[in-house]
Specification:
Layout: E1 3-4, H1 11-33, H2 35-46, H3 50-66, H4 68-78, H5 80-100, H6 104-117, H7 121-132, H8 138-155, H9 158-163, H10 169-190, E2 195-196, H11 202-213, H12 216-248, H13 252-279, H14 287-306, H15 310-323, H16 330-335, H17 343-371, H18 379-400
Antiparallel strand pairs: 1-2
Helix pairs in contact: 1-7, 1-8, 1-10, 2-12, 3-6, 3-17, 4-5, 4-17, 5-6, 5-7, 5-10, 7-8, 7-17, 8-13, 12-13, 12-17, 12-18, 13-14, 13-15, 14-15, 14-18
Length: 410
Amino acid sequence: MTLSPRSELVGGRLLVVLWLFGAAYFFSLFFRTVNAILAPDLQADLGLGPISLGFLTAAYFLGLGLAQIPIGICLDAYGPRRVQAVLLCLAAIGIASFGIFDSVALLVLARAMIGIGLAGCLVASYQSASLWLPMRLVPFASGIFLAAGGLGALAATQPIRFLMGFWEWQQIFVALSFLVLFIALAIFVAAPDPEKGRMISWAERLRSVPTAARNTRLRRYLPLSALCFGTGTAMQGLWAAPWMTDVVGYNIDNVSWTLMAMAVALTVGSALGGAFSTLLQRFGLGVRHVVLGSAVIFIAAEIALITAQPLLNVPAWLIFSLTYNVVTLSYAYVAMSQGKEMIGISNALMNTVVILSTFAIQYGLGAVFAWTNAGQNKSPYLYTLAVLVGLQICAFWWAVKNDKPIEAKA
């Protein structure tokens, strides 16, 4: 069966439900980026080199990416309430396991389990907004969800270092697993199921995957989203810290404060992106222009980082974080050209490519840095980012080439 909006979810209950989905995405970004702060401890406790650290951190994205299409199909079949509650319970198990295990192999499995359990946070949030809000407010709500994720990234910086003054990181993970479990139960209790529409067989649902993939808007904006978000997350989630120490010469305190400022910028940028998408509609513009404008500013910030000028470092990192997440408002832009029964699988398809690209970039950077002894030479950092910038420029050209407005589907 397909799902239809449910009109009874209004007022205070609507806000509570949307808040709960945003809280889930908060934890998704928290666990996505926390290894940037934990990296020295993980390396000291587990004896990890750059390749092993990169793979351990990127295992989250591997689980996250591989789960996207099954989750998208299940979201369209069962709705965000049931799917998200089950996934968050799985995430809670993975988080607790990461705090308990001391074997590198088991920690990789636990982090991959965290990725699978948190894999539905963004697409379930987007679907909840699409089901229960007017379409004109969906980009704004999407920006608010992204801002909630930014707060999660913020919590994974200086606040987590503060807590590590009282507890071991393993104890913090076990405690956080109970918070994630609470969010899962709250979503299951508070969120309704959407009304059921016409019956759709699983064979038909599987056939919807290539149908959604053939969407012109999806194919044009997916490469840009994958490269910008993948680069931004790979850097902010792990490699920005060694960049700051090896290229600019920061100490650990300077690194942690800069990462915290970047997380604030990520939050602010995400919220502003959604707000601007709504406000610009009054002037005949919209989410497409916000996505493309953010991509241009993001690329400019990367070019500033490549110049390796110390005075430009902090402003460039802040602009970098302010903009890369906003590019994923392309999900909402693409969803406007899909039918409601296709929104879940459309978002899942985009997220699959975006997240697996993030895995490849994060792990690939670790391999390049280890192979080139990047800790003793800053050139590998600059050259690899320059290559990524070149790919992003090509993807930007592909997005705008012959792009024509498409009427949003109801």
